[in-house]
Amino acid sequence: MLFNSYSFIFLYLPVVFLGFFQLGRIHHTYAAAWLALASLVFYSYWNPAYVGLLLGSIVFNYALGMWIAKAGLKQEARRKTRLLAFAITANLLLLAYYKYANFFLSSVNDLAGSGLSLGEIILPLGISFFTFTQIAFLVDTWQGKVKEYNFIHYVLFVTYFPHLIAGPVLHHIDMMPQFARASTYRIDWDNVATGLLLFTLGLCKKVLLADSLAPYATAIFDGAQHGLASGILPTIYEAWCGALAYTLQIYFDFSGYTDMALGIALMFNISLPINFNSPYKATSIIDFWRRWHMTLSAFLRDYLYIPLGGNRKGKLRRYGNLLATMLLGGLWHGAGWTFVVWGALHGIYLTINHLWRELIVERYLRWVPGWLGTIAGGTLTFVAVVAAWVVFRADNMPQAMTMLNAMFGIAARPISFDAVLHGNLLLLTDMSGRDLLRLLIPGLLWVWLLPNSTHLRFIKGSNILMLVQAAIVLYMLYVAIDQFGSYSPFLYFQF
After folding, report:
1. Segments in 27-150 forming alpha helices (H)
2. How far is CA 202 from CA 13, 15, 198, 213, in A?
């Protein structure tokens, strides 16, 4: 089920909302169980066959978590560590089978000329997110951070429908106290109003911006792929427009989902962790990864980079750990070499960023005015991020290189200024570059100038002011719903 669908907005969400708070008046356990059951229904809407897989994963990890906790109480450190290693291995093997088995076999086939195959494997929706969420639970249990083991709350923690499909990645210690809090089960109209505001903003990002940009990004990348065979290269203008279209599409799509998830959760008095903080305002790649997909960045830092040694074993080892972490972070996003290269690029970016700070900035550039460093760093960071998104979006590396070569003038088809203003995009029938600019310019102004959505609250004041705010939100919701069209899943559903 999609957030941007009539069935979710007009049927599922109202029924779940009313049922939750009505049952909360009777007993908190009933309300929690209702929300957990509703979350499983939400997941089963995609494919009922995989609900069993999800429940099996939940029962397995809960049982292993209990055993690890009991071993900890008995001070059986070695047994506790073996249980943790077994549980994490089992989770990663499940993820590897569904997400990477055919990628691995196809790579072996390409190298060895063999024909190995496991047949078609359908990737369960959200498997990366609910697997990582439960791995974090296991490690937190091993470290003694987990204090509550209520099974219904645990099921709700894993399946809670706002985050189940595409995050954010949750920590047990942040969520369980909220499920145990009495105030969670009473309607808070301030939270409902602010939650509806966030949901509406996220819906507008998805429907009005991301979905409008998607056809242009797809068409230009497909045009670059066709150009490989026909010899007709993209122009610099077209390549940059395609790259920027996808850069904004993935931002408005994923941050839109996250805003909607935070808004829905807040309507149920649950605070999810912030996952975005205006990442395209970043002034360095280090800053970018503190702002983009923040819960995944924290997970990779806490459960991969630091266990690998972090920065505790010398600079050379530090940069090796950075590269390994980003490579695996890229592979987490998808089973393809483009994702691996994208992760490697960001690993290299981060290494260069750290070396630049240590060897150049601290020694020779302290005299540079802060505003100049901010502009230069922000511009360079944005260009580097856009270039990496090209690799991330491309179907294969030749397609990515065609786009990048055109973007940086290495191999691009010449174009006149008049053609830029009045012509159509490369081999794309009647798709107009001018129409695309009408989306790109407001989109760039949005991500660079507007405050982060998590700073927004439904402001309380006079009744007139509150009515005006409510009218604006309802109008925005109407405009977004009016644009619903064909099936349009969120990009991160596939990761």
Report:
1. 28-44, 51-73, 77-112, 127-142
2. 16, 21, 6, 15
Closest by CA to 217, choosing from 32, 449, 428, is 428
Q: Give the count of beta carbons closer than 10 Å to the beta carbon of residue 182.
A: 8
The greatest distance separating any two alpha carbons of the chain, rounded to the nearest whole angstrom, comes to 77
Residue 168's contacts (CB-CB under 8 Å, 6 or more residues apart) are 258, 261, 272, 273, 274, 275, 294, 295, 296
Question: Residue 226 catalytic?
Answer: no
Instruction: Look at residue 461 in the predicted model and tell me its pLDDT.
Output: 67
| pLDDT for 417 | 63
Question: 51-73 vs 77-112: helix axis angle to the nearest 10?
Answer: 140
Provide φ and ψ at 432, rounded to 5°: -95, 135
Question: Which one from 163, 171, 333, 354 is the annotated catalytic residue?
Answer: 333
Backbone dihedral angles phi then psi of residue 357, each to the nearest 5 degrees: -65, -45
Task: DSSP for 213-263, please give it.
Answer: HHHHHHHHHHHHHHHHHH--PPPHHHHHHHHHHHHHHHHHHHHHHHHHHHH
Give pLDDT, residue 455. Answer: 79
∠ CA 424-222-213, rounded to 5°:
65
Indicate the helix (H) or strand (E) that contains 157. Answer: helix 151-159
Per run of 10 residues, the mean pLDDT along the chain (length 495 residues) is 90 96 95 95 88 94 91 74 92 91 83 77 85 92 86 93 86 87 92 93 94 91 82 85 95 94 95 93 95 92 88 85 93 90 96 90 78 90 97 94 93 73 56 78 94 78 79 91 80 73
Which pLDDT score is estimated for 263?
A: 95
Name the nearest CA neighbour of 407 among 390, 430, 424. Answer: 390
Are the C-beta atoms of residues 219 and 225 closer than 8 Å to each other? no
Q: What is the pLDDT of residue 429?
A: 47
Residue 489: is the preceding peptide bond cis (ω within 30°)?
Answer: no
Range 333-339 contact pairs with CB under 8 angstroms and sequence separation of 24 or more: 333/392, 333/495, 334/494, 334/495, 335/99, 335/100, 335/102, 335/103, 336/103, 337/396, 337/397, 338/391, 338/392, 338/393, 338/394, 338/395, 338/396, 338/397, 338/400, 339/392
Question: Considering the entire predicted model, what is its pTM?
Answer: 0.91
